[in-house]
Amino acid sequence: MPNGFTGCVLVKLPIVIADVTDSIIVDNTTCLDELAKKIDHIDVVVRDLEADAVYGGFISPNNLNGFRQNVIAPGRVPNFINNFCSSPKTSVHPYEKECGPRELRSITVHGTIHKQIYYVNRDDDVRHLGEDIPFTKTVKLDPPLPVMNPGNTDIEFKDVDVDIAFDMPRPVRINQTATVSFVLKITEDQQIFIQTCLPDQDIVGQQVLSNTGFEAFSGCVLDVWQTSNVAPGEPGRNGNGSFSVGLGGPATSDCINPTAETASLVQSIPNEVIRPGLRYEFCFYIQDVVPTGIVENYRVDARIAFYNETGQEINSSQVTTFQETEINGTWTRKCVTSNAAPEGAVSGNVSIVFTREGGDTGSFVRIDDATLIVRGA
Ligand SMILES: [Ca+2]
Ligand SMILES: [Ca+2]
């Protein structure tokens, strides 16, 4: 996956359609070239294990959920359905039942048991004899397993184990019973859409808001931010861009409604960085403008909120209120840190709300350099 890519991606994945546990017993008798006193031990391994699928005929897709089909020449051939072929391995010919859903009826398993027999001869020497025993077995599937496309299926052996039991009825004869046990993992490649996410460690420490310096705007409209009663293009913090945004003022601005008692700035948190359990730190710089003769009485609420899938606000909203006495003409940095985002949080936003209270005669605040940093749990 490309670095940093998130969203909806079409992938081809092996979907497990069955795990079949079975075993095969392989008996054989080995005759030695010389008399033996005893068997010391037998080492045994299984080699060249293979599984061949045995399919029954074409099955009607009508009863299979989610199967796409093309019906051609309706009525020309009774009950004939030309299947939609998604496997690049298969070619379709009219009226051939080669591709599309079929029943996996059995699996033929074959392989070789490789043995190393260590025995003690009459001279008390340990001798060694190698032996390969091929075997085959048909594993029936009952009921048969429908697969969408045989060309996309695969069978893999898991947990293969082999045990051997033996006895020596005569000094030149060894009876052996090998038991090969295994799990057949049957998968079919299917294309599905998945939602990809950045790992937590890639987003913790990142600043995730846009137009943080309030430099991008057109007339009264700030880029990215949703606003009410704000004046972009106010003087910014020294040395860091040119502009800030005024909330509730200045009264001379065409962007400001002088009778409104509130002003607000809201920005959505990018959905892909919202993770239940992580915390978010919202900071911004603020100053107030209180010209001589003006009485100030206002408050500023800074807030981080999360919402569930239906858009309802869920817990962990964090609000910090600043009074006019905490803010003056010097740019000051204020921060609010959220509680851990709750389970079910799929969206969220940050906001700054200026509220003019009784007796205020025209003060307002400026905001600049607002950031939201993702913090760990
Ligand atoms: Ca700025
Ligand atoms: Ca003040």
List the helices and strands and how they pair.
Layout: E1 7-31, E2 36-58, E3 69-70, E4 82-83, E5 102-121, E6 126-147, E7 153-170, E8 173-196, H1 200-203, E9 217-218, E10 221-222, E11 226-228, E12 230-235, E13 243-247, E14 262-268, E15 279-289, E16 298-307, E17 313-323, E18 332-337, E19 347-356, E20 364-375
Bound molecules: calcium ion (CA) (2 copies).
Walk me through the structure:
1% of the residues lie in helices and 59% in strands. It is an all-beta fold and 377 residues long. It contains 1 helix and 20 strands. The strands form 6 sheets. Strands 11-14-19-16-17 form a 5-stranded antiparallel sheet, with no helix packed on it. Strands 12-13-20-15-18 form a 5-stranded antiparallel sheet, with no helix packed on it. Strand 5 (102-121) and strand 6 form a beta hairpin. The chain is elongated, with a radius of gyration of 37 Å. It starts with 6 loop residues before the first strand and ends with a strand. It has 2 domains: 7-59 and 100-195, no CATH class; 202-375, Galactose-binding domain-like (Jelly Rolls, Sandwich). It has one helix at residues 200-203, and strands spanning 7-31, 36-58, 69-70, 82-83, 102-121, 126-147, 153-170, 173-196, 217-218, 221-222, 226-228, 230-235, 243-247, 262-268, 279-289, 298-307, 313-323, 332-337, 347-356, 364-375. One calcium ion is lined by residues 213-215, 236, 240-241, 243-244, 368.
